[in-house]
Amino acid sequence: MKLTKNVIIRRKGFQNLPERILLKDGHLIDPGTNMDKKCDILIKNGIIQDVDVIDAPAFSGQVLDLKGKIVSPGWMDMHVHLREPGREDEETIESGSLAAANGGFTAICCMPNTEPAIDNQEIIQYIKERSRELLIDVHPIASITKKREGKELSEILELVEQGAVAITDDGSPVMSAEIMRRALEYTKMIDIPVIGHEEDITMTENGQVNEGFVSTCLGLGGIPSVAEEIMIARDIMLAEYTGGKFHVAHISTKGAVELVRQAKSKNIKVTAEVTPHHFSLTDEATRNFDTNTKMHPPLRSEDDRVAIIAGLSDGTIDLIATDHAPHSSEEKEAEFIVAPFGIIGCETAMALTFMQFLHTKKLAIKKIIEKFVANPYQVLNLPQPKIVKGVIANLTIFDPDVEWIFEPKKILSKSTNSPFLGWKLKGKPFAVINNNQIFQSIL
Amino acid sequence: MLKSKHLLGLDGISREEIYTILDTARSFREIFDRPVKRVPTLQGQTVVNLFFEPSTRTRISFELAEKRLSADIVNFTSSASSVKKGETLIDTVRNIEAMKIDMVVVRHVSPGAPHLLSRVVNANVINAGDGGHEHPTQALLDMMTIREKLGNLEDLTIALVGDISHSRVSMSNIYGLRALGVRVIVCGPSTLIPREIEELGVEIYHNIDEIIPQVDVLNILRLQLERQRRGLFPSLREYHNYFGITRERLENASKPILIMHPGPMNRGVEISSDVADSEHSVILEQVTNGVAVRMAVLYLLAGGTSEIN
Predict the structure, then answer these.
(1) A 266-295 residues with CB below 8 A of B?
(2) Best to test chain A binding among B8, B52, B81, B88 (most A CBs inside 10 Å)
(3) Which residue out of B196, B221, B224, B227 would a mutagenesis test of the A interface target, given it has the greatest number of A Cβ atoms within 10 Å?
(4) Residue A10 lies in a domain
(5) Cα distance from B138 to chain A (closest Cα, Å)?
(6) Is the same domain home to A364 and A428?
(7) Burial category of A264 from C-beta neighbours within 10 Å (exposed 0-12, middle 13-18, buried 19 and up)
(8) Which of A290, A323, A399, A401 is the catalytic position?
(9) Residue B264: is the preceding peptide bond cis (ω within 30°)?
(10) Is the domain of A295 the same as that of A183?
């Protein structure tokens, strides 16, 4: 395998910031610095120069009017599938970054199930190189095991030195408890999390949808909730035994939320993420056999959805990540059992979260920002963006009350596999700023 | 008249529609006793039989129904494995539809395949079995057979016996019979009863001897032998000993029980030969009625009324 290096990325869509720009009249909310006030931000050469009330007429430079909009530190989506290398027809590092920026993110973590997998230093370097000039910070997540086969550990120390921020065999659960134990033990040296796609695959061989009333009615193979919970229980026990950091990817069941809640009460190092589709939809959405409702883990029951909302509200679930999984329309427009698992998510995450939590008053805006900023950065042990003088301007600007329709023409991902097409959504990203660049959302 | 232009399943069907189909089928059944078993009803219409999964009796039954209605017929057979090799279902059907066809009969291993087709083609789509989901014409022919033998369906207790989990026949029977308010029992090993099926208004039993004194009909499902390898039951021997329908078991019945099976049978497994060939077995009449029911469905979807000239 030979990968091209030092490729110059066209900055399609991402624009350089003017030398001086004034963000005027925004409502700044930064839970990290306890900031919650209407104020202006002066950015010079991509660096925050001042956070204060600044007189616009006296300012020489571009002024961006942010009246009625909220400005927060840049959001992170720590669960994104870029299909490069391997399936560039579905997504590339650039198109995935544009989709993320369109959805209001300034950072993403990309999952290692590329072809070849992110299990070697060369691929990490390739991703770093390909994303070097983008607005989006792309943090690669390496595989736990070589080729994601669950057998031998990847060269984790070197991968992390090259820039990997966590490890996972996402999509291919590590079935060997011994390998999982060693991964948790080994990563203690460098304090990165081991992320688990939690599914006992011996129980899910023919599984297509959540096992329950809907799978019975549709005659589709079931994926039982207990297959997820068994693995989470195992890995919580291993995290307790080893002292390693364990992060549950895309938690989806009531029992799983309860397991994480108990583990946290015992101070075991466990964290969890949930996707917007798991708190927005249930398996009832599959009744018309729409393959855009087919994903791993599957859409669950209403009981599970309610438990997830409670878990996110009380802090059991730390953060929201999308599991953005682009698939070509040729592959998705197929018989249900043939179509691949997964949906895109970056561009709908903000609105779906606001609709389920902000507009229903389940979580305050500050708490929601933490779910997208402080918490993912903390889980990954990375310095988090803040709105303070002297740092790179890394900002997400949005309006939580704007209503809009999610249409294919607004999607910047190369794929359009979403169950939310045609939905009326509430809450819209306006622009993101990072790495001396700006991108205005076309949603 | 039917509400939908397709017959994708019996989930959501009304009692009126069921009786319309059964009454129409009865009229067609009478034609079978004539020397010329053919009516010109679908003359000039083209029906495609798309079978993506091996099938003998259902395919022949549909073909015969189409021929007796004077339709032109195209047969397309393909294995499920070639579907996975990139020959997409949608492309195949769009190609065939470009040849100006009117109706599509589809059998496919994937639940929902007929639903997918109904969204992309203009022709009427009839589900001839989609994975473990539905097999509506089979359930309709079962209902027709029971009605002919025992009269009013709604006073009866009907048991579906065996592998309920993987049976499209059982699902369509449950949807159809429950739409009529019939008492439905499902009976089989607990590993072959799908979760939360009681939500569909059926009663669950695991002991054949408990249900025999209560039922009017035993509809015995085919046991797919590969289920044993997946750990769903330990052996054919044990299955037969506990769930097989034998003459000895039937001696506990309080009245004669109608014996049905959608075929093909595993004699000596889910049903013993003496039961299959007994005077109360209507298995061959099911096959005959299958043709009549399929004629009725084709006729009604083509726009026919329940009055046949």
Answers:
(1) 288-289
(2) B88
(3) B196
(4) no
(5) 16
(6) no
(7) middle
(8) A323
(9) yes
(10) yes
- Asked if B135 is an active-site residue, the reply is yes
Q: Are residues A59 and A99 in the same domain?
A: no
Structure confidence at residue B89 as a pLDDT band (50, 70, 90): confident
Q: Both tokens of residue A82?
A: 């870029």
Whether A418 is covered by a domain: the verdict is no
CATH (domain of A432): 2.30.40.10
CB atoms within 10 A of CB A430: 20
Tell me: do A45 and A175 sit in the same domain: no
Torsion sign across C-alpha atoms B152, B155, B159, B164: positive
- The Cα–Cα gap between B243 and B270 comes to 7
Assess if residue A415 is contained within a domain: no
Residue B307 lies in a domain: no
Enter the ipTM.
Answer: 0.94
The pLDDT, as a whole number, for residue B227 is: 79
**Residues A397, A357: one domain?**
no
Structurally, chain B folds into a number of domains equal to 2
Longest dimension (CA), chain A: 69
Percent of chain A whose predicted confidence (pLDDT) is above 90 = 95
pTM: predicted TM-score of the whole model, two decimal places: 0.93
Name the more confident of A213 and B80: A213
Question: Could you tell me the residue range of the domain that residue A61 belongs to?
Answer: 17-71+390-404+423-440
Residue B4 falls inside a structural domain: no
Residue B7 inside a domain? The answer is no
First to last CA, chain A: 38
Q: How many domains does chain A have?
A: 2
Find out whether B152 and B209 touch, Cβ atoms under 8 Å.
no
Residues B125 and B175 in one domain: no
Distance from CA of B92 to the nearest CA of A (A): 12
CB contact under 8 A, A222 and B171: no
A-chain CB neighbours of B121 within 8 Å are none
Domain identity same for B152 and B209 = yes
- For chains A and B, CB pairs below 8 A equal 70
Indicate the helix (H) or strand (E) that contains A320.
Answer: strand A319-320
Residue to test with chain A: of B4, B89, B115, most A Cβ within 10 A? B115
**Do residue A184 and residue A316 come from a single domain?**
yes
If asked whether residues A178 and A225 sit together in one domain, one would say yes
**A400 and A308 fall within a common domain:** no
pLDDT tens profile A294-337: 999 999 999 999 999 999 999 999 999 999 999 999 899 999 99
Q: Is B280 a catalytic residue?
A: no
Does B107 qualify as catalytic in the annotation? yes
CATH number at residue B52: 3.40.50.1370
pLDDT score at A1? 34
Q: What is the rounded distance in angstroms from the CA atom of residue A423 to the CA atom of residue A413?
A: 17
Q: Please, which residues have CB within 8 angstroms of residue B236's CB and are 6 or more apart in sequence?
A: B223, B225, B228, B269
Residue B60: exposure state from Cβ atoms within 10 A (0-12, 13-18, ≥19): middle
Query: Which chain B residue has the Cα nearest residue A202?
Result: B230
Q: Which domain holds residue B179?
A: 136-283
Diameter of chain B measured on Cα atoms: 58
Give the chain B residue nearest A214 (alpha carbons): B196
Confidence of residue A3 (pLDDT cuts 50, 70, 90): very low
Does B226 touch chain A if contact means CB atoms closer than 8 Å?
no
Contacts of A213 in chain B (CB under 8 A): 195-196, 199
What are B150-205's pLDDT values in tens digits? 999 999 999 999 999 999 999 999 999 999 999 999 999 999 999 999 999 999 99
